[in-house]
Description:
This protein is of the alpha/beta class. Among the domains are: 4-155, Resolvase, N-terminal catalytic domain (Rossmann fold, 3-Layer(aba) Sandwich); 175-243 and 278-305, Putative Large Serine Recombinase, Chain B, Domain 2 (Hect, E3 ligase catalytic domain fold, Alpha-Beta Complex), CATH 3.90.1750.20. It is 49% helix and 11% strand. The chain has helices spanning 4-7, 34-47, 71-81, 100-110, 129-162, 188-202, 207-216, 229-237, 284-299, 305-310, 344-349, 361-376, 379-426, 432-477, 488-498, and strands spanning 17-23, 57-61, 87-90, 116-119, 175-177, 184-186, 245-247, 272-274, 319-320, 327-331, 339-343, 359-360, 499-505, 514-519. Strands 2-1-3-4 form a 4-stranded parallel sheet, with helices on both faces.
Amino acid sequence: MASPAVRGIKGIDPDKVAIYIRWSTDDQGDGTTLDVQMEGCKHYALSQGWNSNEDLIFIDDGYSGGSLDRPAMTRLRTAVQDGKVDCVIVFKLDRLSRSVVDTVNLVLEEWDDLCHVKSAREPIDTTNHAGKMFFYMLVSYAEWERNVIRERTWSGRLKRAQEGRNPGFNAAYGYRVGTTPGVLEIVPDEAQVVRRIYQLYLDGVGMRTIFNTLNTEGLQFREGRPWNDSTVRHILTNPLYKGDLIWGLRPTNPKYGKREGERARLQAEPLAFRKGAFPAIIDSKTWEQAQMVRDGRHGRKKGTAGRAVSSRFLLTGLARCKCGSAIVGREGSGKKVHVYYICTGKNSKGQSFCDCGYINQAKADEVAVNELRRLYGTKAKRERLLRVMKSEFQEKLNRLLPAIHQADKELAKYAEQDRELRQQYREKQLTLQEFRNFKADLDQDMSAATERKAALARQVDEARRALLNQDHWEAVVDQIDEWERLTVPQQKNLLRTVCKSLTLYRKPHGSEILLDAVWIEP
């Protein structure tokens, strides 16, 4: 073996020089392709009098630099530990990792006494204290540069979303990415399945039954995967299916603030919303109706949705005992079959907890249906109630829309003041400090006006959605006229559309069934 002192830098065997290359989709546009990196690293090795050993070239193609958990990086680290590598050449330091901590720990801790690291584009020498200090600065700059690129990428996606174009998310089931950038196209066969899912759900069929039905019929989700609860839920809740683009909506849970990049942006409102940005598979009214049904099943009685939908007992999942426990249906065994409702609190904790007696299922259902018909049983009553409610919401809209227009005018006025202020500063009519003071006050006013407009817009959306919900309410409640012909799931859906809560109780030795319902107005 030739002496290192003759062939190159002291301590580096020219035959034990490795090249590490990494590229991912995040690096598109910054010029660090695999070929560019390979050529740059080989030229650098040649300039130092080192050999390019093909067995010591490590390539991670398509892997992010956010973690060191990459196949080629793992093999490289093993080779260094085994003494097979005296020097690692990279095109730039950020190829090792995008993280300052990972890069410093790898180079100055794990590899400190085992090998050197050289960059083809950056002057690095970690053999002395001054070189290590510069190394820290260089790595920190690399991470800053990466954050700038990420911010620019994020800003570009936001701009596309605000323009009503696909900001870069994968096409949901029922759609494919179109030939025109930013456009989604409908997949006819998948769209037919989506429409069927909505129809089944509005007919009172639960999500579990829906995905079991699709799987039984041999219909597969994408890539041959079976349907499940999450795939059906995503279709039933995604506003994309009515053609709307919502992007940048993040939960306000503090735990998400620990994530990097976009995920650290916390807000309750979307950063971009464009109605009708994409072709709709279902109409807005159908989508809103599905949300109303979902709110009725999940929002008011959290944790009981599965039982409420799948049980053959009309009141199971909705009725509760006066003690607060759930009421569920049961079928007794013996020569004579007894079908009844029972308090789960009494059943699990005993008579001392609750003294509710067994409730005859047929009688309880009859009491509930009779009350339903008493309140909503005639079309005249339903139409009269709807007229009153629609009038109230329309009056609210009539008050809000002029307020929205006034808020737009106010924001336009502040925007004009901002332009004038900048012009005065450019013409030296204001000092820098004066400009900053005026600008701070103006920004505060603009921020307050923006928040006022956003609050008004939310109220307008709620009022419009309430009007759509009333149409659904009317369509569902009209089914009272043909109650006996409805399926059990349809009866359950109807009852949950108009009933917010229901208390059911019978004294142990009494015959009277006490039913107290809180009915929902449209």
